[in-house]
Design brief:
By secondary structure, the chain is mostly helical. The chain has helices at residues 2-21, 27-62, 65-78.
Length: 79
């Protein structure tokens, strides 16, 4: 029990020390970080979409002709 409290105290101490010593980010640095994050998020979404398309293409390639025709007919009915 004491070890957990000591560990928590040390963690809070170092966190508080770091926050008081670290300089605040400028507006330009904040905007750069935000744009980098947005770019990474967009890239991740594009990658996920590409993977989804590949999985669907693989599933379609594994289908028999009969399954493809039935699936295409069902998709055509929806439109």
């Amino acid at each position: 029990m004491i070890k957990v409290q000591i560990t928590a105290f040390i963690a809070v101490f170092f966190m508080a020390t770091f926050l008081t010593v670290s300089p605040a980010l400028t507006l330009q640095e904040q905007e750069q970080m935000q744009s980098d994050y947005s770019a990474r998020l967009k890239q991740e979404k594009e990658l996920q979409a590409d993977l989804k398309v590949k999985r669907m293409a693989d599933a379609y390639a594994r289908m028999s002709d009969k399954e493809r025709i039935r699936g295409d007919a069902e998709a055509y009915k929806e439109y």
